[in-house]
Backbone:
C-alpha cells in the first residue's frame, strides 16, 4: 500500500550498494629497495616463514635445539620462541637446549594457559594476534611451531590448500612485522613423494608459501648418520647439506632442593 503522498514507506527503500573495496597499490619506481636480512647467513631469513621436515626419529627437534643455541649466543644473539606441547618442558625441551649450549635467558617456551585471560591452546589462524602480542612483548625473532599440524583451529584442514592459505598468509605478515623467522615442523608423508619439496605432510600451500625449507634425512648406509638439507630457498643460492649424529649426554642440574643431579638428554655433533 502506498503512502498518501505517493511514496513508498521507508521500510521499502533499499540503501544504495556500497562501492567495491579500493585496490591499494604502489608504483614500483617509488619503492626503496632493501637487502634481505639474515638472522644467520643463508640459513634463517628475517621477515619470512619456512619449515623443517623429516621422518619420525631423525631428530628434527634436536637439530632445531642446536640452531636455537647458535641463534641465542654469539656476537649477534636473538630471542627465540618455542611452541611445543608434545614434549615436557622440564624433561625434554630445556635439557636439550642446555645440552646444545643455548642461552636459556633468551628462550621463551609457550605453555597452555590456566587462568581465564590466558591462551589455553593455541589455534591458528584464530590466535594470530595473541602470538603477535607474545612475540612483540619478548622481542622474539625466531619462532618454531612444533609440529604445525597440532595448532590449527577447528575447521582448518591440514591438507586443504585454501584452509592452509588462511594460516600461512597471516604468519607471513607477522614474520614481516617482527622482522623475524617463523617456522613449522612437519612430519613426512607415509608414501614416497616425487621430490623433497612435497615430502612433508599437509597441503602444498605450506611449502609454496614458505621462502625457505629444510629436511632431515637418515643415511641409508649408516643408521646413526643424518643430514640437514636445504630443500627450498627463494632468497639465496643453494647451500651445502650438513651432516650430524645424535648422541646421548648427561647434564648437571640442581633439583628443587638444590642438590646436584644428572639429566639424560640428546644433542647433535
Residues:
Amino acid at each position: 500500500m502506498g503512502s498518501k503522498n505517493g511514496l513508498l514507506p521507508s521500510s521499502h527503500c533499499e540503501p544504495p550498494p556500497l562501492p567495491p573495496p579500493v585496490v591499494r597499490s604502489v608504483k614500483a619506481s617509488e619503492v626503496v629497495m632493501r637487502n634481505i636480512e639474515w638472522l644467520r647467513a643463508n640459513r634463517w631469513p628475517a621477515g619470512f616463514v619456512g619449515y623443517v621436515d623429516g621422518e619420525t626419529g631423525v631428530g628434527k627437534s634436536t637439530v632445531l635445539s642446536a640452531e636455537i643455541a647458535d641463534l641465542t649466543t654469539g656476537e649477534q644473539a636473538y630471542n627465540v620462541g618455542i611452541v611445543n606441547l608434545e614434549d615436557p618442558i622440564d624433561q625434554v625441551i630445556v635439557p636439550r637446549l642446555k645440552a646444545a649450549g643455548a642461552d636459556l635467558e633468551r628462550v621463551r617456551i609457550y605453555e597452555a594457559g590456566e587462568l581465564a585471560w590466558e591462551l589455553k591452546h593455541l589455534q591458528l589462524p584464530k590466535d594470530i594476534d595473541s602470538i603477535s602480542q607474545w612475540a612483540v612483548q619478548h622481542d622474539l625473532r625466531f619462532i618454531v611451531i612444533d609440529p604445525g599440524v597440532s595448532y590449527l583451529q577447528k575447521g582448518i584442514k591440514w591438507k586443504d590448500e585454501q584452509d592452509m592459505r588462511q594460516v600461512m598468509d597471516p604468519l607471513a605478515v607477522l614474520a614481516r612485522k617482527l622482522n623475524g623467522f617463523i617456522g613449522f615442523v612437519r612430519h613426512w608423508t607415509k608414501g614416497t613423494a616425487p621430490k623433497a619439496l612435497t615430502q612433508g605432510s599437509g597441503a602444498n600451500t605450506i611449502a609454496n608459501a614458505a621462502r625457505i625449507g629444510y629436511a632431515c634425512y637418515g643415511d641409508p648406509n649408516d643408521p646413526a648418520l643424518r643430514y640437514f638439507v636445504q630443500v627450498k630457498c627463494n632468497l639465496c643460492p643453494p647451500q651445502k647439506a650438513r651432516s650430524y649424529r645424535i648422541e646421548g649426554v648427561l647434564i648437571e642440574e640442581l633439583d628443587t632442593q638444590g642438590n646436584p643431579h644428572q639429566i639424560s638428554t640428546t644433542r647433535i655433533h
In short: The mean pLDDT is 89. The chain has one domain: 36-268. The domain at 36-268 is CATH 3.40.50.300 (Rossmann fold). The longest strand covers residues 222-233.
